[in-house]
Amino acid sequence: MTDGEWRVLSRSLVFDGHPWLEVWTEDVLLPDGRQVDAFYRLEMPEYAIVVALKAGKVAVQRHYKHGARTVGLHLPAGYIEAAETPLVAAKRELLEEAGLAAERWVSLGKYVVDGNRGAGAAHIFLAHGATHEQAPASHDLEAMTLDFLTLDDLVAAVRNGAVPQLAMAAAIGLAVVELGYVEPHFANPS
Amino acid sequence: MTDGEWRVLSRSLVFDGHPWLEVWTEDVLLPDGRQVDAFYRLEMPEYAIVVALKAGKVAVQRHYKHGARTVGLHLPAGYIEAAETPLVAAKRELLEEAGLAAERWVSLGKYVVDGNRGAGAAHIFLAHGATHEQAPASHDLEAMTLDFLTLDDLVAAVRNGAVPQLAMAAAIGLAVVELGYVEPHFANPS
After folding, report:
1. Are residues B35 and B87 in the same domain?
2. Does A73 share its domain with A159?
């Protein structure tokens, strides 16, 4: 236990919705000696998200998501299956949902979804040089339309509230950071 | 029911961890007429996150988060209390956790945390012209150290994996988009 880490003294499964979600309670020991009982932990599947660039434009899906209760813009994404690495899952989802394969893949990081509860993790990828490989054939429950937007237009969509999901906003922001795209809104931070 | 929305036919509370989390199951009707039973829904509190700029640097906390199981860099953030708007909560958290007040506030959006399950929402703010108001006095369980980093250094920290939480990565990426900051990593998207 170093540098502020909490120690898990015991844990119990209190709701089993496997494979989609499990709720655990954990009794934890804080570095200052305090004990906190029944701190909730969510175990949920990790997923991969892809910012795929085809001729300078990003592959974007417009569809409903029940978590957000609204239709909006999303990126190709999906749960990582048992035998897959995050990159393999990202490549499979890009092919299934957008019919694309890509030349060069860059990891933009792995991020835990909830800072307190866990709730799985998002693995974000940037895929350069995407090309059409096959017709999209998603097995998801949501009917989706595929489009290609410039990063400018995608950023404008984020600003207009058309990107409802946290992981998609993160992926777009991190892609902008990575690509050095810039359309300054405020010239000078203060 | 328009444009691909799902209709909730009935819902049941299957685990009550109020106020931290509730698990519901929802029977839903898809636009194509299919019915999906027991689709999991997580009700969790919404929270506010602040990218606060003080003399051109961002207020950053280094501390442990149990969701991530690791020590890392975070931004001032916290749950929105019952009587608060997201902006009021953001101002309170910035004052409590960093001892700062700010001149000008910009919303960078509201984002649902999980695209399928809900799991609350993150309200992200950019605060310009922050000034020291009082000593930080957080009531959080984690012991934290406060620091001020340039956006360059914060972006480098994200790239190095030192920012473990999705909402913090999103806030930093969206702040870069908003401020027009750029340190190009790849010159030409392809």
Report:
1. no
2. yes
Contact assignment for B71 to A3 by CB distance below 8 Å: yes
The model carries a pTM of 0.93
The structural domain count of chain A equals 2
* A50 close to A61: Cβ distance less than 8 angstroms: no
User: Is the Cβ pair B116, A67 closer than 8 Å?
Assistant: yes
Residue A184: band (very low, low, confident or very high) from pLDDT cuts 50, 70, 90: very low
Q: Any chain B CB within 8 A of the CB of A118?
A: yes
Handedness of CA A145, B187, B149, B156 (dihedral sign): positive
Residue B103 and residue B147 in one domain: yes
Both A102 and A61 in one domain: the answer is yes
Question: What's the CATH code of the domain at A140?
Answer: 3.90.79.10
Chain A residues close to B111, C-beta within 8 Å: 163-166, 169
Q: Does B66 touch chain A (CB under 8 A)?
A: yes
Q: What is the pLDDT of residues A25-48, one digit of tens each?
A: 999 999 999 999 999 999 999 999
Structure tokens at A10: 């015991």
- Answer yes or no: do B167 and B112 share one domain: yes
What does the pLDDT read at residue B138?
Answer: 75
CB contact (8 A) between residue B42 and residue A42 = yes
CB B92 within 8 A of CB B54: no
* Nearest Cα residue to A121 out of A86, A172, A93: A86
Residue A161: C-alpha distances to residues A157, B43, B138, B156 (Å): 6, 21, 31, 27
Give B89-113 pLDDT, tens digit per residue: 999 999 999 999 999 999 999 999 9
The verdict on B52 and B136 lying in the same domain is: yes
Residue range(s) defining the domain that contains residue A28: 7-43
Q: Cβ distance A163 to B124 under 8 Å?
A: no
Do both A99 and A137 map to the same domain?
A: yes
The reply to whether A113 touches chain B by the CB within 8 Å rule is: yes
Are B79 and B106 members of one domain?
A: yes
What ipTM score was computed for the predicted complex, to two decimals? 0.93
CA distance A96 to chain B (A): 19
